[in-house]
Design a protein that fits this description.
The structure is a single chain. The protein is of the alpha+beta class. It is built from nine helices and eight strands. The strands form three sheets. It has a four-stranded antiparallel β-sheet, sandwiched between helices. A two-stranded antiparallel ribbon has the order 4-5. The protein is globular.
Length: about 230
């Protein structure tokens, strides 16, 4: 493992525009579904660079659904650009890297039969020490709450991984505001989510807003959770 390369890689990621960066150990994905692990994406993978950009508070908490949707797409496109540039930089250092799109593929259900992206960004961020996965199944950052939009770059570079996040951000059974506020009861106190029920409700009017596959009408669990975290 090269501490010098690791330090330089993280600085490069921040210089490209990321707000947070961490590196997950590629060997820690044993609980991930088959075909959704770093080595399924890049043989000999050593680490996953986790990248985060926060959405502005007012966009999450106050903006119209159209502007919230725009904020999601703008943030994720910026992450995609950072991920691509970082992958190219890693390649220039003599190693391989594959950027994972910040948003899941449009037809991922048809390919896998489930609503799964190629790699879990939130689990990568947790393994990279950036935050905790809460009851609402979102990544919770001690600094940014639920506002982080995430991306990942899988690499075989000899990077030094960060330690997985071990802090406590989610209050669990002492809170459960996210469960109570969900309008379609897609969340359970045990930290499970009915993805299909959630997706059918939170993203609507796809026939009108086809460029964004619909308008993001719901963000209640994100809002209430971020308010709880960021006021403390």
């Amino acid at each position: 493992m090269s501490e010098k390369l690791t330090k330089t890689l993280k600085k490069k990621t921040l210089d490209l525009g990321a707000a947070v960066v961490g590196i997950a150990d590629a060997t820690l994905y044993d609980k991930a579904p088959e075909k959704h692990r770093p080595n399924d994406i890049l043989k000999g993978a050593t680490g996953v660079v986790s990248i985060g950009i926060p959405m502005p508070k007012a966009v999450l908490q106050e903006s119209l659904p159209t502007l919230y949707t725009s904020g999601i797409f703008t943030s994720t496109e910026l992450i995609n650009q950072i991920s691509l540039k970082l992958a190219m930089w890693i390649e220039e250092q003599g190693h391989d890297a594959i950027p994972i799109t910040s948003r899941g593929p449009l037809y991922m259900e048809a390919l896998s039969g489930k609503m799964l992206g190629d790699l879990s960004h939130k689990h990568s961020a947790m393994l990279a020490g950036i935050g905790e996965i809460g009851v609402n199944t979102l990544l919770l950052s001690p600094k940014y709450g639920t506002r982080l939009m995430l991306g990942s770059v899988v690499t075989n570079a000899p990077v030094k991984p960060d330690r997985p996040f071990t802090g406590t951000v989610c209050l669990g059974s002492k809170c459960l505001k996210c469960v109570a506020v969900c309008p379609v009861k897609a969340l359970s106190p045990s930290g499970e989510i009915d993805k299909v029920r959630c997706a059918k409700y939170y993203r609507q009017y796809a026939e009108l807003f086809y460029e964004t596959w619909g308008i993001y009408q719901c963000r209640e669990c994100r809002k209430v959770c971020s308010r709880m975290i960021e006021k403390t």
